[in-house]
Amino acid sequence: MRLxxxxxxxxxxxxxxxxxxxxxxxxxxxxxxxxxxxxxAGDRVCDTDNHGGPDQALYAYAxxxxxxxxxxxxxxxxxxxxxxxxxxxxxxxxxxxxxxxxRIGPEVEVMVRAPRTPCITFQHRMxxxxxxxxxxxxxxxxxxxxxxxxxxxAAGDDIEILSRPNHEVTIRDMFAAQDGRKMRGMLDxxxxxxxxxxATAERVIARG
Length: 208
Prior knowledge:
This protein has 208 residues and is an alpha+beta fold. 26% of the residues lie in helices and 27% in strands.
């Protein structure tokens, strides 16, 4: 399991109508990049009402999922196209458990926090019909990460899973938000959760 690229915005782009600028266009960086509690040095967040903060410090997407999308869409999915900060190889990001902890390179440690939720800016970026719906149906959202230990990372760094919590809810499960039994187990485990995800889990359980 390794890091293929580390991606940072280099130029802001206009977003969809009336949404202002977007920093979704990430480009791979050479050399080591510093990781702080709010993300990568030199990166930007424009829509701070819906993105960014410690629980969304980094967004990781797997090369294997990008390759799958390339086949579905009949187009290249270069690193950074989805706005990801990290493109990985050999790591099942969508199968990661909420609360799972990884080490990236010799220093940085991160916690898996939430699946990515597609938005109108992502739709505008991709210019694909019904993109938000297709992204949901595919169940390959990638993961937002919280930085537990700062340091530097670079393309080629190994990724190691340090710990996994005692429940069954993966990024894919949380994205689908359908399995009440797993959600109950997650809440009962006492794992540290974002309040938004806790509320979603409670709604799924209430539906029966």
